[in-house]
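Why does residue order matter? Because the sequence determines the fold. Keep that principle in mind as you read this record.
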Amino acid sequence: MPDPAFKPIDLEHQKKFERVDQQAKFAVDPWHAATDAGEAHNDELAGPTHEAPPTKFNIWEMRAAYHAEVAQVDDLVGRILDTLTETGQLDRTIIVFMSDHGDMMGDHGLLYKGCRFYEGVVHVPLVISVPGSPAQGSVSNALVELVDIAPTLLSLSGLEVPKAMQGLSLDQMLLGNTSLDCHKPYVVSEYHNSLRFRGSRGSRASMYYDGRHKLNVYHDVGIGELFDHKEDPNEHYDLWDSHHHRGLKYDLLGRSFSAMMLRSGSGPERIEDY
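Structure:
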């Protein structure tokens, strides 16, 4: 597991997100979190473990537990693959291994979960195995979303993909008919009051990423983030308030709005003009 993506500058940056839901209500140095964060939480947020921010952080304990969880998943996936092999089904089974959005694990001084779009949270693993595919064993750097999985499975199974379904099938890429590094020009992610705990505000936010620039908008609180992955792959330097990047920010805001509209449900298919 890599070390947390952390620089001291992150501590100051996180202060402007006090009105954005996050289990860790402030940033800490992840290597000293067990001693730095102990008593700084507001007492009014105290409550059951799953409803309130933790009162003490121990990065080493968290990382050990995370390693244990990964080892358990690895063992269970291995058991599934062994069973498919033993029953003669491996060569006619499409296998998808994926993850949901995870824990901050000390990145940028944050622990646990919340309304944020750092790479450690949104850049999740996706492994797909299609029997007989010439692309088997390849690695792709294409922009892909989890909503692409459903149309992919339908297409590979020979079933029609509903026109109103979100996502773009990966079938042609997986079958070796198109480039492995080009699927779609951008990806988006959304957070809609997904984390509820005592003191939460019901945060809503959206992310737009084109492979280089990432724009995060935290709705109704008047703040956002802009990162340049070419110059700053670990997302330490926020360009949202930079005068030199104002034009880029407004351009990305327009693109983000268009992307959200294009992915919105279009309703039932029209069967007659009127």
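Residues 35-52 have pLDDT under 50 and may be disordered.
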